Amino acid sequence: LGPDGHPAKNQSMPPVPLPRRMWAGGEVELFDPLRIGDQVRRTSTIEDIVLKQGRTGDLWFVTVGHQYETSRGLSVRERQDIVYREAADPSAGKSVPTPAASQDEPASTSRSIDTPPTLLFRYSAITFNGHRIHYDLPYATEVEGYEGLVVHGPIQATLLLNLAAMSAPSGLPRKFSYRGLSPAIAGRPLLIKRGDGDRGNAFWTESEAGVRHMMGTVA
């Protein structure tokens, strides 16, 4: 493992030169539901590596594709967008989330989810995620510079997709796309929302203070 708890680069991920890893977004396409007893083969491919300039410096975006297949053919296709950032500067203070264009959009559905450390720990366990920002408070605050433990991007995507599935007459949507906007910190209520009217295919998470953390859409 690398110092952040992820598998060391050069093994499952390319050797990009920046240390801080975050989940930037992704997309899931559902073709044929997995069934109990299926044997599933996953093929993973590094599809793209791009260097960009951000407000905080260099950003390396790595796109990873996964295909899940059974004897019937393709079941699930997933795209993961991973971003690598420069090391945190301890003298710069904590990485305080910035309000992400809330616009006070009306929501047809809103749920509030508590985010205690136990929720993060359990999600890390079931997804085999060793990233220390989700369970190691001294590492998250003193090394990565966050205000506290960071709520997983994928758990927010999971909650949004669950809401989309419960909201759709036919159940699971065919395609779900999402992108992270700002980090959500554990211990604070997380609002899971669906847009109203013509925006019924839009879903997002936000804090009680109106800071948007993730946006998602279904098709």
Notes on the structure:
It contains three helices and nine strands; from the N terminus they run E-E-E-E-E-H-H-H-E-E-E-E. The longest helix has 15 residues, at 153-167. It is mostly beta strands. The mean pLDDT is 89. Strands 2-3-4-1-6-9-8-7-5 form a nine-stranded antiparallel beta sheet, covered by helices on one side. It has helices spanning 117-126, 137-143, 153-167, and strands at residues 20-30, 41-54, 57-70, 73-85, 107-113, 175-180, 190-195, 202-207, 212-218. Strand 3 and strand 4 form a beta hairpin.
SSE order, one letter for each helix or strand: EEEEEHHHEEEE
Gyration radius, rounded = 18 Å
Dominant shape: globular
> Average pLDDT, to the nearest integer?
89
What is this structure's SSE topology?
Elements: E1 20-30, E2 41-54, E3 57-70, E4 73-85, E5 107-113, H1 117-126, H2 137-143, H3 153-167, E6 175-180, E7 190-195, E8 202-207, E9 212-218
Antiparallel strand pairs: 1-4, 1-6, 2-3, 3-4, 5-7, 6-9, 7-8, 8-9
Question: Short description, anyone?
Answer:
This protein is mainly β. It has helices spanning 117-126, 137-143, 153-167; strands at residues 20-30, 41-54, 57-70, 73-85, 107-113, 175-180, 190-195, 202-207, 212-218. The termini are far apart.
